[in-house]
Design brief:
The chain has helices spanning 16-19, 22-39, 43-59, 64-71, 75-89, 91-114, 117-128, 138-168, 175-199. With 204 residues, it is mainly α. The longest helix has 31 residues, at 138-168. This is Biotin transport system permease protein.
Length: 204
């Protein structure tokens, strides 16, 4: 069964993380991404980073179940990554790479859980404002980011519906039977979104 992503689903609250400015949280996320290159040199550092992310979830008022929900949709990818790294580079590398991916996913999810999407978009638009002199449309960049964030749960929902329809028809676990209708429905929804944006004069 396909798991549901919570990406982009803001949960209102009054915790210190909820009150932290969106720009600070995004900057911390970028720094974590940069530091991941150094952290994954030692497997125990990555495990410690995952523990700290777990503590951050607790500070935000979320339990371990919600933490695990963030990585559940990509469980098979993590298993495959761990197996390949174990086979080619040993168990330390397998733990470091796999857990580091989980750390980044859980940290990014925590930012979206504690920050309204509009606040995140505002930060991106303000950060990109100086690039207008080079022809960058900051508002359009923010719109693209917003659509990207919102499309993740939409595609996950389509995948779940397609899989449930397959099960109802007694279909087998054929990858082709799953991927083709999912791709068609995703493209159809993308066309609808594009037409709606053009109708509102948001693109030419």
């Amino acid at each position: 069964m396909l798991g549901a992503s919570t990406l982009g689903l803001f949960r209102p609250g009054t915790s210190p993380l909820h009150r932290l400015p969106a720009a600070v949280k995004l900057a911390a996320l970028v720094l974590l991404g940069i530091a991941s290159v150094w952290l994954q040199r030692e497997w125990w550092l990555v495990v410690a980073a995952f523990a700290l992310v777990g503590v951050a979830y607790g500070i935000a008022g979320y339990g371990p179940f919600l933490l695990l929900r963030q990585v559940r949709p990509m469980a098979w990818l993590l298993v495959f990554t761990a197996a390949m790294n174990w086979w080619t580079a040993g168990w330390e590398r397998a733990i470091a790479v796999t857990v580091m991916i989980a750390v980044l996913v859980c940290a990014a999810a925590l930012v979206t859980l504690t920050t309204p999407t509009t606040s995140l978009i505002d930060v991106v638009v303000r950060a990109a404002a100086p690039l207008r002199r080079f022809g960058v449309d900051a508002e359009r960049l923010g719109l693209i980011l917003l659509l990207g964030i919102r499309c993740v749960p939409v595609v996950a929902g389509l995948a779940r519906e397609v899989r449930e329809a397959q099960i109802a028809r007694g279909a087998t676990n054929s990858l082709r039977a799953f991927a083709v209708p999912l791709l068609v429905r995703a493209l159809r929804d993308a066309d609808s979104i594009g037409e709606a944006l053009m109708a509102r004069g948001l693109d030419d």
